[in-house]
Specification:
By secondary structure, this protein is mainly beta. The protein is built from 2 helices and 22 strands. The protein has a single domain, classed as Glycosyl hydrolase domain, family 43 (Tachylectin-2, Chain A), CATH 2.115.10. About 45% of the residues are buried. The structure holds beta-D-mannopyranose.
């Protein structure tokens, strides 16, 4: 595949680790693609909740039209957030293709699979936002997770079609908030053209007062769709957010996930939202924060040229760790100082 025109580069302040931090080789059960993880620091330990598409010959999947046997969501722990990830013996969630026709969830019997986990701790409780494929469309689910990651309960789910939800880590003006990306097709010309929205809730179950936060037209390096990436991080200046931004070489190509002619490029953007009214963008960068550049981001893996952040941690010394899936195949981390990231968010919408 290689790097595409127009060439998009990561921000100068961003330091990428030269190799992925979690791959299929680290997983003690069937695993092929390890990516799009949520990460949080809980009681001093880093917890990663990762997506695993499994059940295929992993050496042969580059540009192949293949199916997988299932998708699971696994858990890993690390002391420094970068090295030595200890993967829990069993995944938290596991859905096999074709085996969930009657459903596993008592309250939501329609589920086909859960994936792309985003992890947020609010008032000491652990929550996951997940994409939820059902027989009747793709929904965004919020699950409450047991402290030892041994189980979960879905506490709310959107109507289709919505996903990429992330929760803010605290209430703002008495309400919980989430960023999300509905994907209206008919209303936007019958093709991908999706934006980032926000909704609020008194209890994490009932969501409303939805508003548009950022439109795809506000992002100069996207011509296809944008949406949330990692959950927001609080800073003195505002809520620091990452978002995914997609450009295609030519309209109408690479439209389905399993399409052989994959030509979507996913980069990550950065913006700052108002602390008291997070529906307001107070600054953004008009250039990407993370672009695909390294060989395993551009030339290897299942879907080349895909960068998708799912976790962001602000350390006490100001270092920010940004966790991202690369090529829908491996999980990576990049770092920058928070002041450098804030300095990027100075352009107006
Ligand atoms: C989206 C989701 C993501 C994935 C991206 C690129 O539709 O499936 O999990 O990273 O496509 O393939």
């Amino acid at each position: 595949m290689a790097i595409w025109e127009p060439i998009l580069k990561s921000a100068d302040c961003l330091k990428k680790l030269e190799k992925p931090i979690l791959t299929k080789d680290d997983i003690p059960y069937d695993a092929a693609l390890i990516f799009n993880a949520g990460v949080e620091k809980i009681n001093g330990k880093y917890v990663m909740v990762f997506r695993n598409d499994y059940g295929t010959d992993s050496d042969k999947f580059v540009n192949q039209k293949i199916g997988f046997k299932g998708t699971s969501v696994g858990i890993a722990f690390s002391d420094d957030g970068v090295t030595n990830w200890q993967v829990k013996e069993v995944p938290l969630v596991d859905y096999q293709v074709g085996k969930n026709m009657l459903g596993k969830e008592k309250d939501v019997p329609d589920i086909l699979r859960l994936y792309d986990p985003r992890l947020t701790v609010i008032d000491g409780e652990i929550y996951l936002c997940l994409a939820m494929d059902t027989h009747h469309g793709i929904r965004g689910a919020i699950a409450k997770v047991k402290d030892d990651f041994s189980g979960y309960e879905i506490i709310s789910a959107t109507v289709p079609d919505n996903r990429n939800m992330v929760l803010f880590p605290e209430k703002i003006g008495g309400y919980y908030y989430r960023l999300e990306r509905p994907f209206p097709v008919y209303g936007r010309g019958g093709r991908d053209r999706f934006d980032m929205w926000i909704s609020k809730s008194p209890d994490l179950k009932f969501w409303g007062e939805s508003q548009l936060v950022l439109g795809v037209e506000n992002v100069p390096y996207a011509n296809n769709k944008i949406g949330p990436a990692a959950p927001p991080v609080k800073t003195d200046k505002g809520w620091l957010i990452t978002f995914h931004a997609v450009d295609v070489e030519r309209e109408g190509r690479g439209q389905t996930t399993w399409d052989l002619t994959w030509t979507k490029r996913y980069t990550a953007g950065i913006a700052l939202l108002d602390l008291e009214d997070p529906s307001k963008v107070i600054g953004m960068s008009k250039s990407p924060l993370i672009a695909p550049e390294l060989p395993y981001e551009t030339d290897e893996g299942f879907r080349q040229n895909v960068i998708f952040p799912g976790g962001m941690i602000l350390e006490d010394d100001g270092q920010v760790k940004i966790y991202y899936g690369a090529s829908d195949t491996v999980e990576c981390v990049a770092t920058a100082h928070v002041d450098e990231l804030l300095a990027l968010c100075t352009e107006e919408l």
